[in-house]
Design goal:
alpha+beta
Length: 366
């Protein structure tokens, strides 16, 4: 029943100097060497201190875990051989964007020309999860419904409490940095895939964008493939966190699909309301309250995440992801990446120690 719900995962990693722990340009050497091993599963990103990797299209979440583990180990090994270190955090604890070089690529220069410092300062690291769909029509239906759950799962991924040497007070400051870009955040509701495509066509026609990939929402129907792409999350510290979050996205898609097959729909909430929860998740992670719009009241974030686990419970066995999703409880108990970074800082008052912790966690359980 859920064969269409394949998984693809993209992660963005920090390239650092092992002595200073500052972000450092690798002059695409890591990408060049990695191409020989993992071919097109690695690519350069906007800033030269970033490496992006992507899995194959995986039939299930277990295959995705093997792929991400291989990618993390491969990049860490190549980076180490070249004299760099690697970590996964939504922002670097103390490096400044003004010192970072832009990758020599006409596409990136066009973005800088248009967006100026909004682009130059976009020194952030995200997780993208693609979930396969049987059609773009179904992808849009599912995207409309799962918008409600974006803040819940995003809260679990929060992993960027520091920015340019400061404790920002946010569990995910990465989202605040990215908010400077146009066409970001929670998407609107679209009544049909035709309406969605007309919207994209209008943006292209009026020179707002030159291609549909410049719509950078937290969730989008992919312009070319039958997938829903989740883009809201910080890149997690560890492999286990990444796979748990990807599994949750896959399961919530499968649940909405199951309801549709039973002629049932999940209630569609207004974008502005979902945004309230997204702001709370970015500020407090799993430590605060989210709004239960059905009850019209604040509810502890952890309690709502447990409700989400109950909601998807009847699809996880068919997906084969029960064991992996059981790790959600571990995140709720031990804290998100942001909570763990903050604990190190609380104990040491040293952002270098935080950066070392990020690097140490990169290959945990790979």
């Amino acid at each position: 029943m859920y064969n269409a719900f394949t998984v693809g995962i993209e992660e963005e990693y920090m390239v650092m100097d092992p002595v200073t722990r500052e972000l450092r340009s690798h002059e695409q050497k890591i990408v060049e060497h990695a191409h020989k091993v993992i071919r097109d599963q690695v690519k350069a990103e906007f800033h030269q201190a970033v490496v992006e990797v992507g899995t194959r299209v995986c039939n299930n979440i277990h295959d995705a875990r093997e792929d991400v583990a291989l990618l993390r180990k491969t990049i860490a090994q190549i980076a180490g051989d070249l004299g760099f270190s690697i970590g996964a955090s939504g922002t670097h604890p103390f490096s400044h964007w003004q010192q970072q070089l832009i990758t020599d690529n006409p596409r990136y220069f066009e973005i800088v020309n248009e967006m100026q410092d909004a682009a130059r300062s976009n020194l952030i690291f995200g997780l993208h999860v693609h979930v396969g769909m049987e059609s773009r029509d179904m992808a849009l239906h599912i995207a409309n419904s799962v918008r409600y759950f974006l803040p819940h799962i995003f809260a679990l991924s929060t992993n960027s409490p520091f920015w340019e040497g400061r404790n920002t007070g946010f569990k995910s400051f990465r989202t605040k940095v990215f908010d400077k870009f146009p066409r970001t955040g929670i998407p609107d509701y679209f009544s049909s895939i035709e309406e969605y495509d007309r919207y994209i066509q209008l943006l292209v026609k009026t020179n707002c964008i030159d291609n549909a990939k410049k719509v950078w929402w937290d969730l989008r129907v992919h312009p070319f493939f039958n997938t829903v792409e989740f883009r809201i999350c910080d890149v997690p510290l560890t492999l286990d966190d990444t796979i748990t979050i990807a599994g949750l996205f896959q399961a919530v898609c499968a649940k909405i699909y199951k309801l549709r097959m039973q002629n049932l729909n999940f209630i569609i909430y207004n974008r502005a309301l979902v945004n309230e929860n997204k702001w709370r998740a970015s500020r407090y992670g799993i430590e605060g309250n989210l709004i239960d719009f059905g009850k019209e009241m604040e509810v502890n974030a952890r309690a709502l995440i447990f409700e989400l686990l109950d909601f998807i419970d009847d699809v996880v066995d068919d997906l084969g992801s029960r064991e992996i999703l059981s790790a959600t409880a571990r995140i709720l108990e031990n804290g998100t990446g942001a909570d763990r970074q903050l604990k190190v800082y609380q104990d040491t008052q040293d952002l270098v120690a935080v950066t070392d912790f990020i690097q140490q966690q990169f290959l945990a359980n790979c």
